[in-house]
Design brief:
Shape: globular
Largest sheet: 8 strands, mixed
Number of strands: 24
Strand content: 15-25%
Radius of gyration: 24 Å
Oligomer: single chain
Number of domains: 2
Length: 494
């Protein structure tokens, strides 16, 4: 016997992190007649910023663009620590009453669409382990793109021989004391370059062991231009100007890097040499094999990583692991890397839609064969949107435009009496491309299971805030690729 539906909503949001809080704000302000709730699998809001608790965790984008445009970031630190970001999210949810809309401890497991009823049936596991069922007209996924349960662990020979402790940043143990310890951080991405200077403050020594280098650029943690503008202009106007300044500068730097990769790489290498001196082997440890922005650049605030290296408390080793040993690691070069603690900052595991199983009128669509519509919906899946931020800029810039567009779409459907809409791939000449044009390991590992993007709009992802703003705010809702439908209405008696 089918389980009864415990609650019915117009809209269900899945995930109470950065995107989910943003989505809730826009829905309650732009679609006030719609009922909605947020289903959050964990016991607290904040998503990434509540999950990650490793030392030094911070934003990898400036907070003037990572923060919400409806509640601008007002703190001095533009590159902020995880605790400050979490406070900001909690305060935002509390200020707008969004926290009262969250159903904590509800892990969504399945969503089944019925075209005959224009309805999603959403199954979840409740806080006590019981099965709970909801229904909604529109399903809005804000659960991010990675697995919250575990990070990526490649596995190496001899791991069971190591006498010390092995930890993954995604599950940082509260009882881990790094004072006076020899620590090896395996990895070269954003997490590794954040951990190394933070751990170096108390550890005996921290080694960042990388198989290949990453582009690393130092930026000030405080935006001096923002502080000046706040003194010269009314605060509200100043914060809008700062946001747009950072958006436009980010777009300019990104496009210059893609247009002139060799010159950009040369400039980044020059900046690293200034930090570490002429005697440091910058070519070996800081010169990647790929072009700038083939993977995301790593930003370090106030040169903290370089300062840790200059002090001698941290170092970088570029080599490969042959095996774990009792005392640490033996590398391919034959070198020994002694350690008391080994941190595997080896990346994420991609998990689309939070691992939720989806069916449409009894059939199970293959997400890997779907095309992403405007970076928001998926071909042949009705009334479902998904927040997916930029890879070359702040996540919130795209997720906020997505929330605006979803509200615009819902109002359009109401005005014309539509019950559901479905992206349809009508033009067979639209070529398929990978969803994310990035060579980062976690995307490369997941490419076969990810949806695709198309070679032209509305199926192409431009990774460009200005282009997306024009398309999502002002482009036609009915563009020929979005199919709208109405349920049969009973005839009115004459």
């Amino acid at each position: 016997m089918d389980r009864p539906i415990s609650e019915r909503f117009d809209i269900l949001i899945v995930g109470a992190g950065l995107s989910g809080i943003d989505a809730a704000y826009h829905i309650q302000s732009k679609c006030p007649d719609k009922s909605f709730a947020i289903l959050e699998s964990r016991g607290a809001l904040g998503g990434t910023w509540d999950l990650f608790r490793y030392p030094g965790v911070r934003s990898d984008s400036d907070m003037h663009t990572l923060g919400y445009p409806f509640r601008p970031w007002r703190e001095k630190k533009a590159i902020a620590g995880g605790a400050a970001i979490l406070d900001y999210l909690r305060d935002t949810a509390r200020e707008y009453g969004i926290d009262r809309k969250i159903r904590f401890g509800h892990r969504v497991t399945r969503a089944s669409w019925s075209s005959a009823e224009a309805l999603w049936i959403v199954d979840a596991t409740g806080p006590d382990g019981s099965d709970v069922r909801f229904s909604c007209r529109f399903l809005y996924m804000c659960s991010g793109y990675y697995d919250y349960d575990e990070g990526y662990m490649p596995g190496w020979p001899g791991m069971d021989r190591f006498r010390g402790r092995v930890v993954h940043p995604q599950k940082w143990p509260e009882d881990l004391d790094c004072r006076g310890k020899r620590i090896v951080v395996i990895g070269s991405g954003a997490t590794a370059v954040t951990l190394v200077p933070a751990l170096a403050k108390e550890a005996a020594h921290v080694t960042m062991l990388q198989r290949s280098p990453t582009y690393i650029v130092s930026i000030p943690s405080e935006d001096r231009a923002a502080e000046l503008l706040r003194r010269l202009l009314p605060e509200g106007l100043a914060l809008k100007v700062v946001r747009w300044k950072n958006v436009l500068l980010g777009m300019v730097y990104y496009n210059l890097a893609r247009l002139k990769p060799a010159q950009t790489k040369k400039k980044i290498m020059e900046l690293v040499r200034r930090e570490l001196g002429a005697g440091y082997d910058v070519e070996k440890h800081f010169s990647p094999r790929y072009a700038p922005w083939d993977q995301r650049l790593c930003l370090v605030p106030d040169s903290d990583l370089f300062a840790a290296i200059r002090s001698g408390r941290a170092s970088i080793v570029t080599d490969e692991i042959e095996t774990f040993t009792e005392e640490g690691l033996r590398l391919r070069s034959g070198a020994q890397c002694p350690a008391d603690v080994i941190v595997t900052a080896t990346g994420l595991k991609v998990k689309m839609l939070g691992g939720m199983r989806v069916s449409v009128d009894g059939a199970v669509p293959e997400l890997s064969r779907a095309l992403s519509y405007k970076g928001i919906m998926y071909s042949d899946i009705p009334n479902l949107a998904s927040a997916f931020g930029y890879t070359n800029a702040s996540w919130t810039l795209k997720s906020d435009l997505t929330a605006e567009y979803v509200c615009r779409l819902l109002r359009h459907m109401d005005a014309r009496g539509y019950d559901f809409c479905t992206p349809r791939r009508r033009d067979p000449s639209v070529a398929e491309r990978p969803l994310v044009d990035f060579t980062s390991g976690y995307f490369q590992r997941a490419n076969a299971s990810l949806p695709k993007q198309g070679s032209r709009k509305p199926w192409r992802l431009y990774q460009n805030y200005a282009l997306d703003m024009l398309a999502l705010r002002f482009g036609a809702v009915e563009d020929g690729s979005l199919e709208f439908a109405r349920l049969p209405r009973p005839k009115q008696p004459r």
